[in-house]
User: What shape does this take?
Amino acid sequence: MSRSAHPAGPRHADVLTEGHYSAPAADLNILDEKVWSRTVTRDADGALTVGGIGVARLAEEFGTPAYFLDESDFRARCRAWSEAFGPDADVFYAGKAFLSRAVVRWLQEEGLHLDVCSGGELTTALDAGMPAERIAFHGNNKTVAEIERAVEAGVGRIVLDSFQEIVRVAHIARSHGVRQRVQIRVTVGVEAHTHEFIATAHEDQKFGIALADGQAAEAVRRALGLDSLELIGIHSHIGSQIFDMAGFEVSARRVVQLLAEVRDEHGVELPEIDLGGGLGIAYTSDDDPREPHEIAKALSDIVTRECESAGLRTPRISVEPGRAIVGPTAFTLYEVGTIKPLEGLRTYVSVDGGMSDNIRTALYDAEYSVALVSRTSDAEPMLVRVVGKHCESGDIVVKDAFLPADLAPGDLIAVPATGAYCRSMASNYNHALRPPVVAVRDGEARVIVRRETEEDLLRLDVG
Ligand SMILES: *Cc1c(COP(=O)(O)O)cnc(C)c1O
Assistant: This one.
């Protein structure tokens, strides 16, 4: 099909020069392995397969929209992280990225630890048998009930986020007759996002206790003075979707400085530091994430060097990747519905999901890629915006991308790298039914989180 055969075709060249999106890939049929999970490939007929199963069969069996999670890729990423950091460090998977009982079991089998930040996440972790001592509990406003449950369960650490919480957790631990292991979350004045970081970020945020003005040092003083708390270290988390290690470098240096101050004042060398998560992944071909072994080496070099110069023993390091483990392992499969070419602008491709299954584009202007996956096509590329079916003009899944101009209703398209913060942030807006998560591995597919049903909606509505 020639470009002009498509209604929106002739003007594409005009639009292309204005946008900030990349030019179309030379061949839209080629799947960039950077943004797709490891077992994804095209079969002889051109349809995408994951774990050896074609998308037509997946769509027929599980419906659309649905998230398909490449289990062997998930496990491989867990192993890569824990091998990269080795026995002197701990890798905590950040459960908020995506948590289910199957995921908790995979984490256990692969030897990872788990971060939770709510009672619901804690319940899921414990129910699936994660040993409590391998769980860290985070959050800026943990309720008393949540803290009690965490203490009763015996979680390995509670990350203290405020002066009030130091007292609250100490009180609850004392009344349960336990000495609770805790870390203090500090804000190091570093803010990191994707391609830039700011070393002098102001402290105007809800998380943590500022290093500035000696506040973190005061928090350490108070925690050390409470015998129902065992202060095991300092925690810092500087941002998300970070590629540049420079932000971690500044953060680690500032945390080690605090450890040195604590040693000087109290004669105590805190044994652990946690550098948080936030490591970036490839959402589009423009993103170049680092491998876990490079990240591990960079972080441990920084910490070792800073500790040597401060005359401290090197503490045990922990990290908390969420997105970097689960993000690349899943894609969302949609069926194409209405296609609306807007003369001189772009073509709106509507899918059977939208902001209810992926809020990140609307929320953060996140960038995604998209591909036609039920077949290949030799048609010209057309500039599209992939939108959902919700009553909201900001309901965009992929802002600017190219799909073949012969795209038609009923085609299947897939958005890769939706494993993190998509199902976990999904909503019922417009009474949408949240899609299932289907784990695919070695030719087998099984639902790990089922699709919501209209009965589920009505069951909550007790009116
Ligand atoms: C969100 C969060 C993480 C995980 O961030 P990712 O970007 O998914 O790696 C880790 N630690 C803390 C404290 C967080 O809030």
